[in-house]
Amino acid sequence: MARVRRAGQERPARGVPSGAGGDADPAARTSRLRRHTLFAANAVEEALLWCDSRNPREAVLDPRLRAVLENGGDHLERPYTLALLARADGLSASRLAHLAIAQLAMSLMSYVEQQRMELARPLLDLTDLPVAQIAARVGFADPLYFSRRFRAATSMSPSGFRTWSRTAPAVRPRADRRRADLLSQQRPGRRVIEPCVGW
After folding, report:
1. 15, 58, 130, 145: which has the fewest C-beta neighbours closer than 10 Å?
2. 181 or 75: whose pLDDT is higher?
3. 0.70 exceeded by the pTM?
4. CA 169 to CA 178: how far, in whole Å?
5. CB atoms < 10 A from the CB of 184, how many?
């Protein structure tokens, strides 16, 4: 025998037991909206990453070099050599060196050092960690060697950079402002993983 629905009586939504309130529960509605918003944001991000990987104007990294850079970027604190990086991806050291020169326009170890210095700058600016700990975090066992390499990259010592970065821009001397302009213009090669501190 079929049920007859009376006029004015609404059918409950599918999947919602009768008497559960359907969308009348504001917490459930907010939770569903939040899930949909997060899903949409993830979908947009995935689409943008896909478009960036298909960008015809940008040089595409060799997949073997990309794998080495991604693996190394996750562990900048490790002491790397060209042979170690090549062995991790099954390449010969000479082949990896040629790929890096051709696609990064610099040696692989110079690129690694550049990424380490890029990681060291915010650590010096935003934390109160001692320079020796920051050196260890970015892959330098010897803090003095780290200081020398940091000075070569930025023309400032690590402690000088920390002091300089924490002073107001208007208070800095003209030479420091010029140095800030030079530092802001230094851009390493395209990052492989976005967003991420390091590589």
Report:
1. 15
2. 75
3. no
4. 11
5. 8
